[in-house]
TrEMBL record:
This is 3'-5' exonuclease. One of its GO terms (molecular function) is nucleic acid binding. It comes from the Bacteria. Keywords: Exonuclease, Hydrolase, Nuclease. Residues 241-321 form the HRDC domain. It comes from Streptomyces oceani. SMART domains: 35EXOc, HRDC. PANTHER family: RIBONUCLEASE D. Residues 1-15 have a biased composition (Low complexity).
Length: 424
């Protein structure tokens, strides 16, 4: 038993039911050793690094960002907890290089909740784990319907975490004490949760599946820059003309540049709804722009002139420079069009989806965790010339499927593809 387990509040070792009439959760209001002071100096960081290097067992790690307030996704607070070291809160604004801490913990298993969300900002400051345990993904594989940190801590361990500060501006300085308490509590029971979920996965025969998934998270390359990111503006389905698309593109680009300079969330600079309204109405002057939602009395005339200039640039573009309707596909077209364009592919997809969905139900896990919908679509759109276990396995591996996923789905997909193959 680790030191952390010895001092932890008594917690259930088996997952509780999700019955609302079950025993009420126990509120977890304070960290065991109190709220630790925020580390802001090189000397304090060196001390914490030594303490955590000397600790034992896995290390719980969390990061707080300022999503919705700042332009990027950098970390504004790092929380850690390890047996023998207790908890630590580190200010990565004052201590922007945590490479020494990352190196000290590189041979340790890191326990994170929704690891893929935090790993990019952790790597930016020098913290790159070799081994992780993702409690959110573990909960999905174990079949829990609710896998948010608060919900799964309550369901598995019987404690209620206070989640009232999850969406605050973590770039605020100094950070209020209630926020720091909330942050410390986020790692308070993370290792305990890891132990309980690992035991549940082992009981279900899924622990090796989880370990394969965790290894894939660590090995995943950084995502490639998105092509035409402006096309993801909320409400784009209303935009059906190329000139309107050009206005969206110009406004999105102008907003992005301004948000970057201000270090502000783009949505706080100009909302997506305002961009779409301008594209649909195509105002010819600042007065017309001011009449649209999102460009009203709270916006200065100078700001309106900036946005109108972007609109005017789009209005002046020659026809051949206007963006095309529809984004160039990076894979198969939307499945809704298959029945008309490629009925054979539509039949394959229907059979394959049904097979994967049924198997996921038998295994009590989400379909997308058994095999991603994109993988199924790609396989059905361009199946191997010869359908066999070997060719389907090779195709799925090429799309990034893990070995446990192959074991569970290859035979089902071979059957589905073969059953829908055209007769000779």
């Amino acid at each position: 038993m680790t030191d952390a387990q010895e001092t932890a509040p008594a917690a259930a070792t088996q997952p509780r039911t999700e019955d609302p009439d079950s025993t009420a959760p126990i509120p977890l209001l304070e960290p065991r050793e109190g709220v630790p002071p925020v580390i802001t100096t090189a000397e304090e960081l060196a001390r914490v690094t030594a303490e955590f290097a000397a600790g034992s067992g896995p290390v719980a790690v969390d990061a707080e960002r300022a999503s919705g307030y700042r332009y990027g996704q950098q970390a504004y607070l790092i929380q850690l907890r390890r047996a023998g070291a207790g908890s630590a809160l580190i200010d990565p604004v004052s201590c922007p290089d945590l490479t020494s801490l990352g190196v000290a913990l590189e041979s340790t298993e890191w326990v994170l909740h929704a690891a893929s969300q935090d790993l990019p900002c952790l790597r930016e400051i020098g913290m790159a784990p070799r081994v992780v345990f993702d409690t959110e993904l573990a909960g999905r594989l174990a079949g829990f319907a609710r896998v948010g940190l608060g919900a799964i801590v309550e369901n598995v361990l019987g404690y209620a975490l206070e989640k009232g500060h999850s969406a605050v501006d973590w770039s605020t300085r100094p950070l209020p004490e209630p926020w720091l308490r909330y942050a410390a509590l986020d790692v308070e029971l993370l290792v305990d949760l890891r132990d309980a979920l690992a035991e549940e996965l082992r009981r279900q025969g899924k622990l090796d599946w989880a370990l394969q998934e965790f290894a894939a998270i660590v090995a995943a390359p950084p995502p490639a820059p998105r092509k035409d990111p402006w096309r993801r503006t909320s409400g784009m389905h209303k935009v059906r003309r190329r000139r309107q698309l050009a206005i969206v593109r110009e406004l999105w680009t102008a907003r992005d540049e301004l948000a970057r300079r201000r270090d502000a969330s783009p949505g706080r600079v100009l909302g997506d709804a305002a961009i779409i309204a301008a594209a649909l109405n195509q105002p010819s002057d600042v007065q017309g722009l001011a009449a649209l939602s999102g460009f009203g009395h709270r916006m200065s005339r100078r700001q309106r002139e900036q946005w109108q200039a972007a609109i005017d640039r789009a209005r002046a573009l020659p026809e051949e420079e206007l963006p095309q309707l529809g984004q160039p596909p990076g894979g198969p077209p939307p499945p809704r069009s298959w029945a008309d364009k490629e009925p054979a592919a539509a039949a394959r997809l229907s059979a394959a989806r049904a097979a994967v969905t049924a198997r996921a139900g038998e295994l009590n896990l989400p379909q997308e965790n058994l095999l991603t919908p994109d993988t199924v679509r790609r396989l059905c759109w361009e199946p191997p010339t010869e359908i066999s276990r070997e060719t389907v396995t090779s195709a799925l591996r090429g799309y990034g499927a893990r070995e446990w996923q192959l074991e569970q789905t290859v035979d089902l997909l071979v059957t589905a593809l073969a059953a829908t193959a055209p007769a000779d």
